[in-house]
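Hi all, posting the design record for the shared folder.

TITLE: backbone redesign
STEP: 1 of 1
STRUCTURE INPUT:
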């Protein structure tokens, strides 16, 4: 599996789940016959993808920045991945960032990552 070819968990409303109890890649390999429409305990599981959107900063929580998409969905960003959007001293330089985004993971934790600004 490519390093960007992994699965991402979303709740029933479409919000990114920042942490998920299962190792999704192993679960998919063992349990899924159809990898297009996966669901675990009411949560949607999808393959990593890129998307264009404007994210609006909402808050900071437990090592992650919390954003809302233009559709109002909640996504999280690891502080380690915020370098491209932060200004001096690690502060956000703006509250809205438009760009191409993808997802990343660290263990069973998930977040968004900026690919490039638009």
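Okay, here is what came back for every position:
SEQUENCE:
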């Amino acid at each position: 599996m490519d390093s960007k070819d992994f699965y991402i968990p979303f709740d029933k409303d479409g919000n990114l789940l920042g942490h998920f109890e299962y190792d999704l890649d192993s679960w998919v390999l063992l349990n899924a016959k159809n990898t297009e429409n996966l669901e675990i305990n009411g949560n949607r599981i999808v393959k990593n993808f890129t998307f264009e959107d404007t994210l609006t900063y909402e808050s900071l929580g437990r090592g992650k920045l919390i954003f809302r998409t233009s559709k109002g969905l909640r996504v999280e960003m690891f502080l380690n991945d915020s370098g491209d959007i932060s200004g001096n001293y690690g502060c956000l330089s703006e509250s809205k960032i438009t760009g191409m985004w993808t997802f990343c993971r660290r263990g069973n934790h998930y977040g968004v990552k900026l690919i490039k600004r638009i």
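COMMENT: The chain has two domains: 7-47, 51-117.
Let me know if anyone wants the other runs.
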